[in-house]
C-alpha cells in the first residue's frame, strides 16, 4: 500500500483565502514549511478507500519515523487474517481522527493476540460500571461495592485510562481521602461550636432573637455533619478496586494490578476486653468504654439473662449468649432446622439489612452452614419459647403471619435485625450493666467456651469460622481467672533458687506451726489434764525409784 511524506505550506492568499501551496514565495525557506505523511489503509468492506494522514512535523526525518510506525502497525496482521487487518485499520482511522499518539507496536501486538481493544481508551469509571454489572453476589455485597465505586473511586480516579492506572495514582487518591477527613473534622467542629453557642443565647429580647436568627442562618450555610472515611473503609475501597482489577487481568485487559501494591494505613482491629471490676468502676466515673468490643464476665452475663427472663425474646438472647449465633442467623433461624429432640440446630439462612429493608439470605460464608449442639438448659428454654409462640398463634388467629421462624414479631412476621439491636441496647441500659453490643454476646459465647477448655476447633465450628486463627485473633478474650491460672501454671515451669528457698522456708514454718499445735494438746499445755508441777514431780520420783531398785 502506498505511503509518502511531503512538505506542506499553510500560507493563504489574503484575497481569496486559498492555500498558496507551491506558489508560496517563502516555500524554499528552511523552516517555513512543515512535513506531513499519508498512508493508504486497507479498503472498507464496500471497497471505498481510506488513509491515515497526519501533519505538523518539523522535519522529514520525524515524518518518516511516524510513517514507518504506521506501516509496522499494519504489518502486525497476517495476510490471511482479514479480521485483524480490519481492526488495525479501524484503530489507525480513530487515532488519526482523534489526533492521539500512535500506539506502541508491541503493546498493539499483545492486545491483538489477546483479543482486546487495540486502543486502551477504556476509563476506570467505564470498566468499574461494567464490572459491577457483571457481579453475581447477594444484594448487600453489590451495594457495598457500589458505594465504594460511587463515593470514592469514580470521583478520584474514574477519569483515568484503565491501562495507564499506576500505583502513584492510588497513593494520591488515599492521600486525598485523608486530607478530606481532616477537612470534615474541622467543619464538624465548627458546626458543633456554632450550635453550642446558639444554645447559650436566650430566647427573650429583640436583640437575642435577631442574634439567634443570624446564627441559625450561618449554621445553615455550613456543611452538614459528615462521617470521616476510616481506615477500615479505606481498606475496603482498596479491596474493591483490587478485586475489579484482578478480573481485568483475567480478561487480559491489563497486565498489572496497582491496587495490589499501594500501601495504606493498616486497620487496627479493636481487641475484645472483659468488663473487670476496675474497668466497670472507671466506666461508672467517666462513661467511657475501654474498647469498642467489650465482653461480660459469666456473672454479668447471668445477671443480664436473669434481668430479661420475662422478655418475649429471652430465648434468642439466651441462644446468642451461649451458642454464639450471629444476629442475622438468630433472626432467620427456622423451626424446620431446629431439632430439640437431638439437641441441635442447623444454621442455613439469615436475615440481612439492605438499607432499612430486610431480605433473606444465605449464611455469611460457606463455613456459616453448620450444625450447632444445644445443651439441656437451652433446649428447655426453646421448648418454653415454642409453647408461648403456639399460644400467640392461637390468639392472633387468621392474622398470624406464618414464617416458620423460631424468633418473630408478635404477629409471627420477620424480625427486623436493626430493631433487634435497638431493643438489646435498651435492655442493657435498663439492666444497669456495663454496655456491650449485641454482637459482643457472640464474643462472650466464644470466651465462655474457651474458658471451659473447649477445643479451639469445636469453638471455631460452633461460631462458623473457616479457620481457627480467626477464632484466636478475634474472639479469644481471656477471662481474668483463666488468665491467672495460666500465669501460675507457666510460672511453675521455671525452677528459680529464690522460689525454692521461699518454698523451703514456708515448709519449715508450717512444720513449726504443726509442732506448736501438737504440743498445745499435751497434758499441762492446755486446759484439762494434770498441772505442770505435779507432772514433773511424778516423773522425778519414778526415775529415782528405778535407780534404787536392787539388781538381780
TrEMBL record:
Residues 507-524, 539-552 have a biased composition (Basic residues). Coiled coil: none annotated. One of its GO terms (molecular function) is DNA binding. Residues 291-488 form the Tyr recombinase domain. Residues 1-29, 499-552 are annotated as: Disordered. Keywords: DNA recombination, DNA-binding. GO terms for biological process: DNA integration; DNA recombination. Gene3D superfamilies: 1.10.150.130, Intergrase catalytic core. This is Tyrosine recombinase XerC.
Amino acid at each position: 500500500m502506498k505511503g509518502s511524506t511531503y512538505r506542506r505550506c499553510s500560507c493563504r492568499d489574503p484575497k481569496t483565502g486559498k492555500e498558496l501551496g507551491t506558489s508560496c514565495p517563502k516555500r524554499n525557506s528552511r523552516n517555513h514549511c512543515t512535513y506531513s505523511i499519508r498512508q493508504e489503509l486497507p479498503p472498507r468492506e464496500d471497497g471505498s478507500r481510506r488513509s491515515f494522514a497526519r501533519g505538523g512535523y518539523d522535519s522529514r526525518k520525524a515524518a518518516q519515523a511516524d510513517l514507518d510506525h504506521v506501516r509496522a502497525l499494519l504489518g502486525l496482521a497476517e495476510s490471511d487474517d482479514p479480521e485483524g487487518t480490519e481492526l488495525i485499520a479501524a484503530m489507525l482511522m480513530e487515532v488519526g481522527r482523534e489526533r492521539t499518539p500512535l500506539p506502541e507496536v508491541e503493546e498493539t501486538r499483545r492486545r491483538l493476540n489477546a483479543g482486546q481493544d487495540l486502543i486502551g481508551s477504556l476509563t476506570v469509571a467505564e470498566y468499574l460500571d461494567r464490572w459491577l454489572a457483571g457481579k453475581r453476589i447477594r444484594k448487600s455485597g453489590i451495594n457495598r461495592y457500589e458505594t465504594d465505586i460511587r463515593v470514592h473511586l469514580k470521583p478520584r480516579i474514574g477519569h483515568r485510562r484503565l491501562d495507564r492506572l499506576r500505583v502513584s495514582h492510588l497513593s494520591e487518591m488515599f492521600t486525598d481521602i485523608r486530607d478530606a477527613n481532616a477537612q470534615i473534622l474541622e467543619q464538624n467542629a465548627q458546626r458543633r461550636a456554632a450550635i453550642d453557642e446558639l444554645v447559650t443565647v436566650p430566647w427573650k429580647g429583640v436583640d437575642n432573637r435577631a442574634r439567634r436568627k443570624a446564627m441559625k442562618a450561618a449554621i445553615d450555610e455550613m456543611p452538614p455533619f459528615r462521617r470521616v472515611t476510616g481506615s477500615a473503609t479505606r481498606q475496603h475501597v482498596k479491596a474493591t478496586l483490587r478485586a475489579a482489577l484482578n478480573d481485568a487481568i483475567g480478561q487480559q485487559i491489563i497486565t498489572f494490578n496497582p491496587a495490589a501494591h499501594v500501601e495504606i494505613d493498616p486497620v487496627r482491629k479493636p481487641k475484645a476486653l472483659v468488663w473487670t471490676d476496675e474497668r466497670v468502676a472507671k466506666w461508672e466515673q467517666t462513661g467511657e468504654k475501654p474498647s469498642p468490643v467489650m465482653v461480660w464476665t459469666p456473672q454479668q452475663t447471668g445477671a443480664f439473662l436473669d434481668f430479661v427472663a420475662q422478655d418475649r425474646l429471652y430465648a434468642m438472647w439466651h441462644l446468642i449468649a451461649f451458642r454464639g449465633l450471629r444476629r442475622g442467623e438468630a433472626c432467620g433461624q427456622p423451626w424446620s432446622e431446629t431439632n430439640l429432640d437431638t439437641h441441635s440446630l442447623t444454621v442455613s439462612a439469615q436475615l440481612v439489612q439492605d438499607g432499612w429493608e430486610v431480605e433473606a439470605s444465605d449464611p455469611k460464608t460457606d463455613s456459616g452452614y453448620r450444625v450447632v449442639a444445644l445443651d439441656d438448659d437451652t433446649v428447655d428454654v426453646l421448648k418454653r419459647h415454642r409453647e408461648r409462640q403456639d399460644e400467640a398463634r392461637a390468639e392472633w388467629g387468621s392474622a398470624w403471619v406464618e414464617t416458620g421462624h423460631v424468633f418473630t414479631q408478635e404477629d409471627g412476621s420477620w424480625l427486623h435485625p436493626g430493631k433487634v439491636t435497638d431493643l438489646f441496647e435498651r435492655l442493657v441500659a435498663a439492666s444497669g450493666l456495663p454496655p456491650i453490643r449485641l454482637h459482643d454476646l457472640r464474643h462472650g459465647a466464644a470466651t465462655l467456651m474457651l474458658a471451659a477448655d473447649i477445643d479451639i476447633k469445636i469453638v471455631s465450628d460452633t461460631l462458623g469460622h473457616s479457620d481457627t486463627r480467626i477464632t484466636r485473633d478475634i474472639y479469644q478474650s481471656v477471662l481474668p481467672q483463666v488468665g491467672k491460672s495460666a500465669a501460675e501454671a507457666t510460672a511453675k515451669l521455671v525452677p528459680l533458687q529464690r522460689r525454692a528457698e521461699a518454698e523451703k522456708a514456708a515448709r519449715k514454718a508450717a512444720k513449726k506451726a504443726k509442732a506448736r499445735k501438737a504440743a498445745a494438746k499435751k497434758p499441762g499445755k492446755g486446759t484439762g489434764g494434770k498441772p505442770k508441777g505435779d507432772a514433773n514431780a511424778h516423773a522425778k520420783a519414778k526415775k529415782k525409784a528405778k535407780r534404787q531398785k536392787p539388781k538381780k
